Amino acid sequence: MSQIIKSIIITFIAIFSFTHLAQAQRVKGELILGMNATQIDGDEIFGFNKLGLNVGVGGIFPFNEHWSLSIETILNQKGSYRKSPIDVNDTTLLPYYNIRLNYLDVPVLIHYEDKGGFTFGAGFSWGRTVGVEEVEHGLKVETTTLAGPYKRDDVNVLADIRFKIWKKLKFNFRYAYSVIPIRTRVFNNSLNQTWERTQYNSMLTFRLIYVFNEAPEKSKKPVNNTNSE
User: Fold this and answer.
1) Contact 174/202 with Cβ under 8 angstroms?
2) Are the C-beta atoms of residues 68 and 35 closer than 8 Å to each other?
3) Are 38 and 201 in contact (CB under 8 A)?
4) Whole domain around residue 34: which residue ranges?
5) How far, in Å, CA of 189 to CA of 209, rounded?
6) Structural domain count, the chain
7) Residue 10: which CATH number?
8) Among 29, 110, 164, 190, fewest CB within 10 Å belongs to which?
């Protein structure tokens, strides 16, 4: 819990820093609040069933009218969840599973904004685990800690789309996937069969982004249809 509190403090410090930076020059600031729907590929649990927070701040550095670079600091909750198996007679399925991985993420993306106001982005993120808790068969796995078996670092590729919904408020959809395994695990069943799977984070994110210090939209000059004499 102390690691999460430290992450929140870092996030608020970043908010303060970005606010003053944005006031000094034409750098756009972002306040970000959203939710993740996640799964872990390779854990024998299927579906984006684990919900988590995606909250933080960001800065947007424009290159020109269409292209920009963004950097964020995000408290990002990922994991996997299943309440009960589909087939209670299938011993390869976990009857109850819940894993939450809390990361402090730093996404970096290149964006392109079209004339219609839609912004498309792609990039990568580096995340550091600041909290972890795993439950199997209704019992907490005491051996799952920040020291392992999940890796402390998570590197993702990102695809991003956003559009304005009201004034400076934008809606954002993002997909992220780990490019290196977060864990390698050996599974077994009642028949003493074993198999090994590498695991990767897979994440769908839905966010609201408030953008400040954005340049005002250029007003269209009225057309003067008066003919000169």
Assistant:
1) no
2) no
3) yes
4) 2-212
5) 45
6) 1
7) 2.40.160.20
8) 190
